[in-house]
Amino acid sequence: MKIRIKFLLLVLACLTALWAINMAIGQGQMQRPMVFAVIYDRGPAWVEGKPILEQPTIPGHIQHHRNLGEKRIAAAPFTPLPEDMSVGMVVLLAHSQEQAQAWVDNDPAVKSKVMTARLRRWHLESLKGCF
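^ thats the sequence. predicted structure below, dont judge the formating
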């Protein structure tokens, strides 16, 4: 019985927090985060013949993504195609184009020119769970 009461109190607290956030957004007190897609391409320092996980600075690139925490919606490499320069994509939340661009600019793989990055605002209406 105590567990059920604690669970119900937790659900009530979560619903109250969501209600407060929605009210603040509706009153203009909070800005709803925007969704951005970052498309990564092979850069000038890309080592041909090496898979993505063996490229220089990739461990730092992966950690950079992990540091986004809940702001990272999705991140994964693409299936490699010899004629395609694109190697992967990240979908993230940010409050402005400038905030998202600053995150991209600090990516170790971009800084080292192993990859280049194209940042695009994604006007995502909804995202259904698929896994």
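Helices lie at 2-26, 58-66, 97-105, 108-111.
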